[in-house]
Design a protein that fits this description.
With 252 residues, the protein is an alpha/beta fold. It has helices at residues 17-29, 40-50, 66-76, 90-98, 111-122, 178-189, 197-205, 213-227; strands at residues 9-13, 33-37, 54-58, 80-85, 103-106, 152-155, 158-161, 166-169, 172-173, 195-196, 237-240, 244-247. It has 2 domains: 5-122, Response regulator (Rossmann fold), CATH 3.40.50; 141-247, Winged helix-like DNA-binding domain superfamily/Winged helix DNA-binding domain (Arc Repressor Mutant, subunit A, Orthogonal Bundle). The protein has a 5-stranded parallel beta sheet, sandwiched between helices.
């Protein structure tokens, strides 16, 4: 998988012991240092402790649904996430990819298939996000903003200092409102993630605003104007029709 694969870390979240062992052996043969978890809560804890490059995540876990675990991982980590399930229908696949999974594989599968899919994921650009504590089992999507602690984010020509609440575009400071800043931090902090309008509402405004999606549209529109995003080829924030918003992949 490349000369630097020995430095890569993976967390396998799988409640079936045989499947967990198979995935561990497969990844270890390709240079990963592997940590194992049998539940969603344990997997979240290990993501926080090990800061992995890759997470394999079973959809059917005994405590938390795999899609919820993926949401919480995406709030604190930019690790590649491969969702694994015995439910191969299209709705499950779309759900997994919309909440931040990078790939999706159905059981049964061969070790060679896992290897090929992982290699394909690691050929894609990966933008680092700041480390922060993994949310507790009671945490929700509303806790998705990066935790304080010297966080600096970058996306192409856009730079964000979370602690100083400072945004620079092409080296020039932008004047954002508090809400625009909080929206930008969520989006840039998980650049491959697609946020639904409801998720953005709960994260920035709170549960009591969860039915007023027009708020998101207005503030995202204002933020886009300040970022210079106009027309059908935005530079930073893209609309995912029927879903919500995400970041445009940086050029180059």
């Amino acid at each position: 998988m490349g000369t630097d694969s020995a430095e890569r870390r993976a967390v396998v979240v799988e409640d079936d012991a045989d499947m967990r062992s198979l995935l561990a052996r497969t990844l270890q043969r390709h240079g990963f240092d592997v940590a194992l978890a049998g539940t969603g809560a344990e997997g979240l804890r290990m993501v926080g402790e090990h800061r992995p490059d890759l997470v394999t995540l079973d959809l059917n876990l005994p405590d938390l649904d795999g899609t919820e675990v993926c949401r919480r991982i995406r709030a604190v980590s930019d690790a590649y996430v491969m969702m694994i399930t015995g439910r191969a229908d299209e709705i499950d696949e779309l759900m997994g990819l919309q909440i931040g999974a990078d790939d999706y594989i159905s059981k049964p599968f061969s070790p060679r298939t896992v290897q090929a899919r992982v290699e394909a994921m690691f050929r894609r650009p990966r933008t680092a996000v700041p480390a922060s504590a993994v949310p507790s089992q009671e945490a929700t999507v509303a806790a998705a903003a990066p935790a304080p602690g010297g966080s600096r984010l970058a996306h192409g020509a856009l730079e964000v200092d979370v602690d100083a609440r400072l945004v620079l575009l092409d080296g020039e400071e932008l004047a954002l409102t508090r809400t625009e800043f909080d929206l930008l931090v969520l989006l840039i902090g998980a650049p491959r993630r697609v946020w639904t309008r409801e998720m953005l509402l709960r994260s920035v405004w709170g549960d009591e605003w969860a039915s007023d999606e027009h708020l998101v549209e207005v503030h995202v529109g204002n933020l886009r104007r300040k970022l210079g995003d106009r027309g059908k080829a935005p530079r930073f924030i893209r609309t995912v029709r029927g879903v919500g918003y995400g970041m445009v992949a940086p050029a180059g």
